[in-house]
Design a protein that fits this description.
Elements (H helix, E strand, L loop, with lengths): L2 E6 L4 H12 L4 E8 L3 H11 L3 E4 L2 H12 L4 E3 L2 H8 L6 E4 L7 H7 L5 E4 L2 H17 L3 E4 L2 H9 L8 E8 L9 H4 L4 H4 L9 H9 L1 H14 L6 E5 L5 E7 L4 E5 L5 H8 L14 H4 L5 E2 L21 H17 L5 H12 L2 H4 L9 H19 L1
Parallel strand pairs: 1-2, 1-5, 2-3, 3-4, 5-6, 6-7, 8-9
Antiparallel strand pairs: 8-10, 9-12, 10-11
Helix pairs in contact: 6-11, 7-11, 10-14, 14-15, 14-17
Length: 388
């Protein structure tokens, strides 16, 4: 029987990889819906091959402009997940991939949990800012969950047959981004064109900048702590330029487990789609030269000062994480617009998160989605006001 699936954010990087895997295994899947915000042309091409029953175009202007293009092909069109859910998802489908980037995907991510037996989440912002709300729905609707980021999928895999309490040390690796070999003085004013050129991964501009500053690893540690309930003090980030090893767990029984694979997001996505089947994915042979030279290094905090932020984070989901996400998002956007220098991303981030109105939020939990979204908007405005 074909697995009924839906993809939130099918035109983004994770979504495109998911679509590619489905196209290679069409006999295994029945695509119920795809979605986009702006990339309607890509969405239309995806519909030609996958023939979904419906699409969501979240951008209302583009929804009204292009909906008839899909209706002619007998594809239902909606502008919100809630509308699609009421019309089409009367029963749980087998799998939903949540890969809308940023907090704009939060509402749909949480709403999707009640409509699927299995939810795969690649939206780190949702997990970081709203894990308690996500977890509550996962338990309420008895939905299985798997994280898709390579580091978190690796930890999830390594924890099979183990409890989080058994973990003594958890290591997440970082490539170091495009400026690993630069002298620190040269990095300070480097332009966005160079910063988005990640050495190993094909990613969007925003995540590429986060990789260059190592802010993505701050987020990944927070995300891992929330998902796996491992004390945040047990985490360490190591520089690993080849991006071959994604996580390392040291257990209290003395065992050390390492998960390695090529830097290709198709691998965790493929495995999340085929947990119940022994399927094969095309991948490279084991690279002995890399295994013989893994080249792990401690993080130089002078080069990557953003990692110091982790000292402020505790084991509870609070509104402070929303401040961190929103301020960083806005600062990266300002940098991409050439309105601030590279080194000012971290400098201004510290300025924002140390404001008393925001630093005090480390003790306040989000109770509903609107708490997060309203705060995010406020922080974005404050960031522009103080940093431009």
């Amino acid at each position: 029987m074909k697995k009924k699936i839906g993809i939130l954010g099918s035109t983004g990087s994770i979504g495109k990889n998911t679509v590619s895997i489905i196209n290679e295994n069409k006999n295994d899947f029945d695509v119920i819906f795809l979605s986009t915000n702006n990339n309607v042309n890509i969405l239309y091409k995806q519909c030609k091959s996958l023939k979904p029953k419906a699409v969501i175009i979240f951008n209302k202007k583009k929804y009204f402009k292009y909906k008839y293009k899909f209706l002619i092909k007998k594809i239902k069109v909606f502008y919100s997940f809630e509308k699609l859910k009421l019309s089409l998802l009367k029963k749980k489908i087998d799998y939903i991939m949540c890969s809308i980037s940023g907090l704009s995907g939060l509402s749909s991510t949480i709403d999707s949990i009640s409509s699927t037996k299995f939810v795969a989440i690649a939206n780190k912002e949702s997990i970081i800012c709203a894990w308690d709300l996500i977890k509550k729905n996962i338990i309420k609707y008895k939905t299985s969950f798997i994280p898709i980021d390579s580091e978190h999928f690796s930890i999830w895999s390594l924890l099979k047959n183990h409890s989080s309490d058994e973990v003594q040390k958890a290591i997440i690796t970082a490539s170091g981004g495009p400026f690993l070999s630069y002298k620190i003085k040269k990095i300070k004013n480097v332009n966005p064109q160079k910063a988005v050129k990640h050495p190993n991964w094909k990613m969007g501009k925003k995540i590429s900048i986060d990789s260059a500053t190592l802010m993505n690893k701050v987020f990944e540690v927070i995300e891992a702590q929330r998902i796996f309930n491992i004390d945040i003090k047990k985490f360490e980030v190591l520089i690993h330029p080849k991006s071959y090893v994604h996580s390392i767990l040291k257990f209290k029984n003395g065992q050390i487990k390492i998960l390695a694979h090529d830097p290709d997001m198709k691998i965790p996505i493929f495995n999340s789609l085929n947990l119940d089947k022994k399927k094969k994915i095309k991948s490279k042979n084991i690279d002995i030269s890399i295994l013989n030279n893994l080249n792990f290094k401690k993080v130089n905090l002078s080069r990557y000062p953003s990692l110091k932020v982790l000292k402020k984070i505790n084991n509870n989901n609070t509104l402070f994480e929303t401040v961190l996400i929103a301020a960083n998002d806005e600062l990266v956007d300002l940098y991409l617009q050439n309105k601030i220098y590279f080194f000012e991303i971290n400098k201004n981030l510290n300025k924002i998160i140390n404001l008393k109105i925001y630093s005090d939020l480390i003790r306040k939990k989000p109770k509903k989605i609107s708490d997060i979204m309203n705060l995010s908007e406020e922080v974005r405005l404050k960031t522009r006001e103080l940093c431009v």
